[in-house]
Amino acid sequence: MERRQFLQYAGSSVAAIALAQCTRSANQQRPQLPLVSADGSLTVGLTATEQKVNLAGQSAQLLAYNGQVPGPLWEVQAGNTVVVNFTNGLAQPTNLHFHGLHIPPTGNADNVFVSVPSGEQFRYEFAITPTHPGGLFWYHPHHHGLVAEQLAGGLAGPLIVRGAVDEIPEIRAASETVLVLQDFDLTWRGRRREPTPIFRRWGRQGDLIAVNGDRAPAVTIPQRGLLRLRLLNASTSRIYRLRLENHPWHLIGMDGSTLAAPLALDDLILAPGNRADVLVAGDRDPGAYTLMSLPYDRGISDMMAAMEGDAVPRVEAATGAIAQLQYGDATAEVSLPPTLLPSPVLAAPSRRREFVLDHGIDGEQAFLINGRGFAHDRVDTTVQLGTVEAWHIVNKAGMDHPFHLHTNAFQIVGRNGAPVPTPLWQDVVNIPAYESVDLLVPFADFVGKTVYHCHILDHEDQGMMGIIEMQAGAAYRPTPPIMT
Ligand SMILES: [Cu+2]
Question: Of the residues 194, 287, 339, 408, which has the maximum number of CB atoms within 10 A of its CB?
Answer without folding.
Answer: 408
